[in-house]
Each structure stands twice: as C-alpha cells, then as structure tokens.
C-alpha cells in the first residue's frame, strides 16, 4: 500500500477541567526477553495484525504465530525466532493501543525501543516498511544465533561503575584469558549501569574484577 500516511493532527492545546496542557506521549517497545508462549493470542484476529502475519510468512519461511502461541518455550527463546516474534508482537500491541486509545497513538511524539525494540520503533515511526523491518530483524536474529553457537558466552550486568572505569577492566579481563577471548560493553542501560557480553571465562573474570573495583552489582544474566 503506497498511500501516503495521513498528516498527524496537532495535539490539543488544553485538556482537563482546568485547561491544563496535555502531557507529551512516548511509545516504548520492549526487546528480547519479554517473549512468552501465548503472546499475540489476544490480537491475532485484528485485521492489521492478520495482514502483518500474512506478509511475515513468505519473509520468514515459517509460521511465527504458531511458535508464539504454542512454543515450546525453548524454541520461542531462540534468538532467530524470538526477535521476529517481538518485532511483530510490538507492532501488534501498537494496533491494540490504536483500537483502545487512538489518541495515545495520534498524539505520540516519540517512538523508542530497547535493543530489538529500536527496530519496532523505527517501523512504527514510519522510517521503514513492515517488510523491510522484518527482513532486517530476521537477518539480525540469525546472525546473533550463529554467533552465540560459536562458543560458550555470557552476559554480565554491572551497576555502580562509570564507563571509564569499566572499559579498562573489560580489556584486562579479555587479555588475561588470552587469544580468542572477548569482553565488551554491550549496552549502556543507565548512568553507571551496563550489560557486558563476551566469552565465558573472560566474563567470569570481569565479574570478580568489577566486584573488587566496588561495583554495586556484578550479576551473570
């Protein structure tokens, strides 16, 4: 459908009994880890969601709705399946919100997401089409699945250390474990809060080093 989207209606200048200015609205999409068996059960029959699922089949080469509804859980948790499921699920949730509270969608001035949710947000904001977004997410999930299968890897949640203190510890942990070791900051979650990914021994070494350096938390995920 190449029909250009309708222009957004300007937000109301005043709401409420005392003419208060409306609060800004942002829509935030979750990332991998929020999936669960039976997800999308309540929205699968919505026309827009059915349309997305019909388009998804030829792109993915499998029935993503069946995996969402029936699992098993360990299959849905596989990155190559989980990421397309979360991408479509996020957009399905947006359609549900549009049906129940249309003003929340039309007034939204920000679309954002955590990790994989960034792709959902870009699609919801009209930066790319559903088809292009799903192709990217499929490729991303498959690449991450392949990388994860290359060797034993771990994630570490670190809180209470600034980046300029944590980064050298990552380098030291990788160097200590020798050739092939990886230890890198993967996500900046909040000031002084990070997730770090890498090979098993290097991450375990970083955990010890971070605790000795005064981290409030150094937890294997």
From TrEMBL:
Organism expressing this protein natively: Alexandrium monilatum
The name this protein goes by in its record: Malonyl-CoA:ACP transacylase (MAT) domain-containing protein
Coiled-coil regions, chain positions: none
Lineage: Eukaryota, Sar, Alveolata, Dinophyceae, Gonyaulacales
Region of interest: Disordered: 1-22
Record field: compositional bias (Pro residues): 1-14
Domain Malonyl-CoA:ACP transacylase (MAT) positions: 28-220
Any one Gene Ontology molecular-function term assigned to this protein's record: transferase activity
One Pfam assignment: Acyl_transf_1
